[in-house]
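User: I'm new to structure prediction. If I give you an amino acid sequence, what do you actually give back? Let's try with this one:
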Amino acid sequence: MPFKMPEQPKCPKCSKSVYAAEEMLAAGAKWHKQCFKCGLCHKRLDSTNATEHQGELFCKQCYGRKFGPKGYGFGGGAGTLTMDKGEHLGNTECEMTNRPQNTNV
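Assistant: Good question. You get back a string of structure tokens that encode the predicted 3D arrangement of the chain. For your 105 residues, that looks like this:
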């Protein structure tokens, strides 16, 4: 029986094999060091600032901006209050509006 190399895990970002010398562990997967970057700002991550959402990696700052609380009152002071919904970050989940709903009964 010929020798068969064991199957190497694939990086979720580039789908190439990840070997032990270059692996980073996060989100239940093994990543290449060069692929272990934030999905928004592309900053290199490590175990202290990496967060995961639906299989994609983010730094803690970008994760908070994209998936954290939105709207009035979140931010810690009058200088940081905003009605930014995060469209520039690709956020389309939030449907905040102050217009009254047309409810003709």
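You can read the tokens as a compact description of the fold. Here is one thing that stands out. The chain is about 10% helix and 15% strand.
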